[in-house]
Amino acid sequence: MRDHGSGLTGSALPPMLRVHVPEPPKSMIHRRTTLLLLLAVILMGAGCAAQTSSEFVVSSDPELASLASEILPDVAARSGMELSRPVRLEVRDSEELERYLVSKLDADLPPDEARARVDVYSRLGLVEPDLDLRALLLSLYGEQVAGFYEPDSTAFFIIEGQQEMALRPLLAHELVHAVQDQSTDLVAITDPDIGSDRASAAMAVVEGQATLVMLEYMTEQVTGQPADLAAIEDFAAQVRPTLELAAQFPALANAPRVIRDGLIFPYVEGAIYVHTRWNGTERTSLFGDDLPLSTEQILDPLAGPPIDVSVTAAAGEVVLTDQIGRLELGILAEDVLGAGDAPFLDAWAGDRYLLTEAGDGSRTLTYAVAWDDESSADSFEASVLEREVAFGGPVRVRRVAEAGLPTTILQVGAPVDVTVEVGPS
Predict the structure, then answer these.
(1) End-to-end CA distance of the chain
(2) Do 392 and 122 contact (CB within 8 A), yes or no?
(3) In whole angstroms, how far apart are CA 330 and each of 113, 250, 269, 347?
(4) How far apart are CA 208 and CA 323, in angstroms?
């Protein structure tokens, strides 16, 4: 772990989509706290009328506008952010949702990039090489999406037919995004071009803040008593078990873990991160200079910023370059290397991969990861060599020293001459 200072999914997914979990079976209810039940309801779960406007909400649906106008000022105050202008809110049907999802996938994850990302993660042993990533993502969202906030149009859309039990918390969550977008460029901070791991960290703040505020708002609605969830000391222990609830749903349960965990991470670990930041302090914006730069900083808020790692190839066409990051490295360690509790995970300092294609069409994955110390690099390399049959091709490992940090270069595929540079974030 560096001194503490005073994916596959993150870059591929349309931002701010809401997933909805149906109410758990009654036989389970007595084993869940009110907090868990509320989270389970949310996490995995335009007509021609004249437009209705209030001080806070603009909508063509008067009842929806009325409910949202009641909720919006409350969640804005709980978010520690300013509400500067009204929010547009509309209803969409399932066909409109499907068209939206397809258009977002076409823009954010075109077919060639989807195949390239599958190539990368199949070479790491995390997915099957024939995975249809775009079809999987569409099925996941078709199963789970209940509403979404679209920063491009500064509007929040809910899918028609929502039960009122789910609509109020859904609004509470999504309206936080609308408030965030009035003071922060949500598109910029979650742009895939800044790197998957960095974008996933930002998404965890975006979704984690909305999740915590929604939970607090709904806890107060249910109990009729003032609620300050940031003051709860066992918050993380209550939230993480919802991962088990989320895994029940067919499309999500059948998805590769690297995708499943990537989808859930921003809501669960993001809410825990925001809780940690707000615990015992005034609620202020978590964006700007304080925005985390890696998933490591979400998992450990005391971690320092990551190190920039770059990889360049002497020959061949660059198909894709991006980050793996601390979150997905942990999945690799557990599922591929059989070393989920390995100390080297705490010594991750930064990484970068490069997928190249030779003239004969063969592809090679180069993954460079910088470590805080030599022993961690030793441990990672030994784990790779012990489990090299789990990778999707011939494996080679070598080490270089860059900027005073040991850096492992893992290649899967034909040998490729590469140069690695390591520098400050």
Answers:
(1) 15
(2) yes
(3) 24, 24, 14, 12
(4) 22
**Confidence tier at 153 by pLDDT (50, 70, 90):** confident
Structure tokens at 194: 């800044």
**3-state SS string for 294-307:** CHHHHHCCCCCCCC
Q: Measuring CA to CA, which residue among 63, 68, 105, 106 is closest to residue 86?
A: 68
**Residue reference for tokens 């669960």:** 268
pLDDT of residue 18: 37
Q: In angstroms, how far is CA 153 from the centroid of its own chain? A: 21
Which residues share a beta bridge with 363? Answer: 357
pTM, entire model: 0.87
Is the per-residue pLDDT at 64 higher than 80?
A: yes
| Band of pLDDT at residue 243, cut at 50, 70 and 90 | low
pLDDT of residue 31: 24
Dist. CA 63–CA 370, nearest whole Å? 54
User: H helices within 194-342, ranges in order?
Assistant: 196-223, 235-239, 242-246, 250-253, 257-278, 295-299, 325-335
What order do you get walking across the sheet with 317-322 strand by strand?
Answer: 317-322, 348-357, 363-371, 405-412, 395-402
β-pair partners for 147: 18, 158
